[in-house]
Amino acid sequence: MTTQNVTIPASSGGMFSAYLAAPSTQPRAGIVLIQEVLGVNAIMRQTADNYAKEGYQVLVPDLYWRLEPGVQLDPEDKDQFAKAFELDRAFDVDSGIEDLKATLLFLRQYPSSTGKVGSVGFCSGGKLAYFMATRTDADANVSYYGVGIEKYLAEATKIQKPLLLHMGEEDEYVSPTAQATIQQGLKDNPLVTICRYAGVSHGFSRVGSTAYRQAAAELAHDRTLAFLRQHLG
């Protein structure tokens, strides 16, 4: 496996950086890995490395580059966690989706790519993974504890490729009402699979954090890998 930082041209002008983790095998399907509110921090880079070890070419774009390039925040530091939410409030979702489309194109055209590229997103990135399903032609998309999806269920009619949603039943940022709304809104869509995990809260797959819950995280990861292998190869 190799890692490097690459630069991607934005459709609106300018350039943004991304962390690339690539396996030694070829050819490779790709994953656009979408950051939490914490930026492209050590946890996201480790997650990218783990997927690369499974044979995927993984690219983690710096979606905060218009606000503050290179953000890397620690979820266990209260001040840094507060800054993460400030950045998230200032973040322009539509611009972020354009950057994700550019990242998707970059991966599809990258040497040794199979052309198959999906996305995996966490937290705010989980919502963006939902938008990858409704607003792009990514081949498969996975959302971990996506925040705010219930507000955008009208877009579900645009889903053309498989979407997997992981939700912790005790998620403090996605209420039981919101989860019920999401389930009700998506239950008749054959492209959508929803997995809920009892007794776990937001961030249950965030390795090294107090929110991490090993059993649920490993089950979700196994389901994600099976889903990606089915739809990306």
Q: What's the level 1 CATH class?
A: Alpha Beta
Q: What's the CATH H-level superfamily name?
A: Alpha/Beta hydrolase fold, catalytic domain
Query: Please, how many helices?
Result: 6
**What would you call the structural class?**
alpha/beta
Estimate percent helicity.
25-40%
Low-confidence spans: none
User: DSSP strand (E) fraction?
Assistant: 15-25%
How many β strands by DSSP?
A: 8
One letter per element, helices H and strands E, the order comes to EEEHEHHEHEEHEH
- Main β-sheet: number of strands, strand sense, barrel status? 8 strands, mixed
Kindly, what is the distance between the CA atoms of the first and last residues, rounded to a whole number of angstroms? 18 Å
Total domains, how many? 1
Looking at the structure, the CATH topology is Rossmann fold
CATH architecture: 3-Layer(aba) Sandwich
Shape: globular
Radius of gyration: 16 Å
* Sheet with most strands: strand arrangement: 1-2-4-3-5-6-7-8
Give the averaged pLDDT, no decimals.
Answer: 96
Write out key terms for the chains shown.
233 residues, alpha/beta, Rossmann fold
